[in-house]
Structure formats: structure tokens, C-alpha cells
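Appendix B. Raw example, untouched.
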Amino acid sequence: MTATPLTTGPDAARRSRRLRTTATLAGVVLAASALTACATAAQEPASTPTSQSSTTASPTTASSTTASPTTASSPTAQAPFDAAETFLCQHLTLDGEVLAEATPVADLTGDAAAMLDAAVRDDGTPLELEDPDAWYLGQLREDGIVIMRPPSAELAAQEDLGSTYREFLEVRRVEGASNIPDGWYVMAGGGCSLTIDLGDLTVPRVELDPANPPTADTTELHLLVTEVGCNSGRPADGRIELVSHTETAAAVTVTLGVEPESGDQTCQGNPPTPFVVTLEEPLGDREVIDGTRGEPVTAP
């Protein structure tokens, strides 16, 4: 099946072994204000950094100027990412252009290579990658770097992770800490399914409604939309938005977002909410694609 680029269209708001989930640097914590704990847990079974404490070391603030990688050879794209989009991976916000280029870690030079060469883990051992060719650049800033790779064959054989699942390592600069020397540290690691950043909307799980399965004659596509953020176990009625809907001869792509509920919420999981998308033409034999992930929509 041909990979579908992850894109929402003009209407959307915009590098040892199989990687072990890396513990957050002892005494060093990373603020993850862009993602609530329950939303992360619902998205992927991966470790997440803890909340920032004023008594422990923290990374320096990133400059608004983005560092540019220098490469020794032309990169090979690892996934069908739309360079015009912005993507989410747990607490990370990633540029689609960098993901689309997928510059191999072995090809990095300059500041990017220096960060990785200097990086140490929480036990003080240097970051060593046995297979650097499997890792590629996911993000580069003046205060840090993110590298990613597709899941190992062993991990992929254990679970159906999907085509957008990536393992990642984040290295960031620590300065002025009372408990560790200045330097580059592995701050976080784990896995995530990359999704498009929908701005103020959250990315839900989208499935076909088994009570109303699509047929060749379908003109109303019945979906089940499950909010992954905390919402006190309630459905997303009235808060689901159709961000974009495109139809081609081969596929119908729908991108849905959920407006978060205001106020404090509990995090026990939410039920699916029915949602209907009206098609321009009967579905026929076309695939239904989730535009936030670029993957086929299936029944639960």
C-alpha cells in the first residue's frame, strides 16, 4: 500500500541495542507543559519526563534562532512527512521539513554531531549508538537535539505500532546546576506515534463505527472518535471538529480534532463519540485515511 503523506491541507491549524526507554536524568527534570500526563499515557506506552522542580537542574532556555544541521551527504526520507506541517511526539514539537529530510546521524557534522558526541546518560556513561545509521535527526536547536528511528524489528514484532511510531532520544544542555557539571545530557527517551499538530485542538483516536460499517454505496461515513486527553470519562459531544476532508480516486482522508474541555478534569479514559462525515461521492473501494497519522482508519 502506498504511504500517505501526513498532511492536513490548508485548513489545518500547523540516533547499545534496541532502545531502552531512557530514564530522565537523575535530578534533572524536563518541563512538559505542552502535554498532560494522561494524554501522554493514552497516546503511547512510553516513559515521560517528570515535572520541573525549582531545586534541581534544568536545561537552559532555547534561543529563538534555530540551529541548522550540516550534513555530509544527501538524506533519505524515512517516512512520508509533509514538510509544511508541524508534528507532535509526546512533549516534543517537531518540524515537518526536518522529519522529511531524515538526515542520518552518521551524516551529522558541526554542532549537531558535537552535541551527540558530548552527551552522557544519567549514570555518566557516554551516549553510544551501536547502529547510528538507523537513527536520524528529528530536531535541532541551540540548546539540544532530538534523534529518532523506526521501531526495532523486535519491538515491531511485539506490537502493531503503526507506520508513524518512532523511538526517540532527546539531548539537552544543562548549565548552572548545583548537582551536576555543565554539559550535554540525555534528558528523555521512549516512543511515540507522530501526529500532526492541530494547534488548540487535540488529536483523537478515530475508528470506523462497527454498528454502521462502510460499503461501496456509503455517502455518510460513520466514525467513532475517542478523545485521548483527560475529560472525566465523558464523550466529546459538540467538541469534534472536521479539520479537513479530501477525496481522491484512491482514498478519502479525514482529519479530526477535539476541542479540549475547560476546567479541571479527571483521567480515567473516555468513551468513543459517534461522528459522521458526508462524502462528496459514494465511497466505492477507496480507503479511509486518518489525516493526523496518515494511516488507514479501521474498526475497533
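End of appendix B.
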